[in-house]
Design brief:
2 copies of one chain form a homodimer.
Chain A lengths: L2 H8 L3 H7 L4 E4 L6 E4 L11 E3 L4 E2 L6 E2 L3 H8 L3 E7 L3 E8 L2 E6 L6 H10 L2 H6 L3 E8 L17 E9 L8 H11 L6 E6 H17 L4 E5 L8 E4 L1 H13 L6 H17 L4 H27 L5 E8 L2 H13 L5 E2 L3 E3 L2 E9 L1 H11 L5
Parallel strand pairs in A: 5-13
Antiparallel strand pairs in A: 1-2, 2-3, 3-4, 6-11, 6-12, 7-8, 7-9, 9-10, 12-13, 14-17, 15-17, 16-17
Helix pairs in contact in A: 1-2, 3-7, 8-9, 8-10, 10-12
Chain lengths: ~375, ~375
């Protein structure tokens, strides 16, 4: 790797790059190709940015800021028109081609063997044949998404939805218009584009969309500048905020505390901005309260019955090698997971995975035995 | 101060005491008498332990552990009988006499000028005349409690309820029986003692008491060993947990995050242990959800109307000097507070105090202006 050229492309000095290699840049030598990844954002370089062994760079996908008071945020953030797209609830991957091989990169900058196998099946080779420099930014969703399994999308396995494009070695993305054109040209699925609205009408349209998405168990929207001049904003449905809380409280001793407060605060702002009636606000309070209380009671009752607190997920793979590699990938990411023996299915294997939720499991057991808090 | 004698009384070496003076022991020279206080627990010495200039020691009041699964905790913790006392919702003070002067000490080990004035009015001089070594441990409660103002106690100002006794220079407390006898002998109010129960019956009795206290807006109970051989346990009402959440979410950006989760988790364990029906559990979820959502919406609406987010409290003092000193005491404790001019009342002055809740105020304002999260 020619470090001077990499530094030039990253727009930092060689010395700076060398210093970063002692701190925020981590080496990953598996699976091939080997790479360096930025574990944190620094010097204007996004976290998850990758430098491959051949010197090619894939920039990290920028974090999207969240609107809390929607109308005010739309007014303040956008200058003219607003494109409203669905925000899907899965995990973010960037798919690129390196030395002729397709790789799917996680948010943190690892190559995920499972996502790579999924990408190889869903992304036509023609994409990278025509555009070897392209990076497909999108969401992996569905029930066989091993991180956030969701039944609400039209797939019984896992699917990839494009939501942005970028180019290797280049900062920034190509924006909503080019992304949807590209998806159409190559027969890729893209996240739903609900429309483009004037900044003033965007509020009521987005609220209408959010209500409808919420009823269907979907997550929310990303609002983008059609001219791609300002960064996007996100906004989520009450049902999705509460869904996050359900997970958080099912595993109350394992999930970060601030996870919780942020979701609850979103509910406060949405309720205030929507000028809810007493009845609507009470219904929201009940939804919020249930999403906290019920999964927690469920966990405690499970433990009273002597069951372990475990999260079950499954994936489907073409090759057993992918399953073995994915197991290793989870382990290096610090995730405990127990893989069942593979079950042959139509065109490959179903792998059931159990993720023990250790801290909640042990804490609940101890409290049931009379431990104090 | 003879340091060797102090070290002996604390049961640590002189060197250890001298080392602690560089770290956890802080000096407080106002108001008189001057003292050293243990800012943190160390070497088996409770946080809030005080060494007065004359060498006398008042030990910190021990932290009481919380039962989460009540029946299991009672079974595990107590060997025989359990005395159930009310846990009152105010602030903890220790009242002692030093060089013939009464002082009220905060949990952290400061002399509070306001609490001292209150103590001087409520504690007969005979108490310390007869027992100069006694330390009265109790709760200051009522609407003119400037930290946790509550209307649910039978006072329209502030009152002191004894809940334990200790002796200067001695670790440990004298226990529930001696405390109530002492209160009776000297005409002091003591926290309600609901009864003494066998360990097995204590669960159902406590649940009955908790339900009844909850309906009256009270906080909960402390369960004590009548023989004072094992440390007490506490347990609180759902209404009180939710009341804490109301405060936390009214000032959602100022209060510690873990404050929140711990209250919610208590609700989960209570609901599971009480084997609530679907209807009861739904009612609890609604109460929980409302306690989070409604105060937050209230704060946001206040800010929309252009009001400042401020907490109003008031105290009543005999002397204006006490008010000035209390203002200084709050400031040194790191609390922002704006004191209104004193209003003469029956036997002294009413002082209204506004506590600006800066972080929530500013954050809400910024979000209303379209800031992102």
């Amino acid at each position: 790797m020619n470090l001077q050229r990499v530094a030039d492309k990253l727009d930092i000095s060689l010395t700076r790059l060398q210093n970063l290699q002692q701190t925020v840049i981590k080496r990953s030598s598996w699976p091939e190709p080997r790479l360096l990844r930025f574990e944190k954002a620094t010097s204007g370089i996004e976290a998850g940015t990758i430098i491959f062994e051949n010197g090619e760079i894939v920039h990290g996908y920028p974090k999207i800021r969240r609107a809390m008071m929607l109308a005010a945020a739309l007014r303040r953030h956008f200058s003219d028109r607003v494109a409203v797209e669905e925000k899907m609830n899965g995990y973010n991957v960037r798919i690129a081609s390196v030395d002729g091989e397709m790789v799917a990169l996680t948010r943190g900058g690892f190559i995920c063997p499972y996502s790579t196998e999924v990408a190889e099946q869903l992304v036509p080779e023609k994409v990278f044949h025509d555009h070897p420099e392209m990076v497909l930014c999108g969401e992996m969703v569905g029930p066989e998404n091993p991180y956030v399994p969701k039944e609400v999308y039209p797939t019984d396995s896992i699917d990839f939805y494009l939501f942005d494009l970028s180019r290797k070695g280049q900062r920034g993305t190509l924006g909503v218009i080019k992304t949807h054109e590209f998806a159409k040209d190559y027969g890729l699925k893209a996240t739903s584009l609900f429309g483009e609205f004037g900044r003033e009408r965007a509020y009521e349209e987005t609220v209408r969309i959010i209500r409808s998405l919420g009823k269907r168990g979907r997550e929310g929207v990303v609002m983008k500048d059609p001219d791609n001049k300002v960064s996007p904003l996100k906004y989520t449905c009450s049902e999705s905020n509460c869904g996050d809380l359900e997970v958080a409280f099912r595993y109350y001793n394992d999930y970060a505390l601030d996870f919780f407060v942020s979701r609850a605060v979103r509910e406060g702002f949405q309720s205030a901005e929507w000028r809810e009636s007493e009845e609507e606000r009470t219904a929201r309070a009940l939804r919020l309260g249930k999403s906290i209380l019920f999964p927690m009671v469920d966990t405690i009752q499970k433990k009273i019955r002597g069951e372990q607190i475990v999260q079950h997920v499954q994936i489907k793979v073409k090759s057993l090698q992918t399953a073995r590699e994915f197991e290793y990938h989870l382990r290096r990411s610090g995730m405990k997971a127990i893989f069942d023996p593979p079950e042959p299915s139509d065109e490959g294997y179903i792998i059931r995975i159990a993720r023990p939720i250790m801290s909640t499991n042990d804490k609940t057991q101890a409290l049931l035995e009379g431990d104090t808090w």
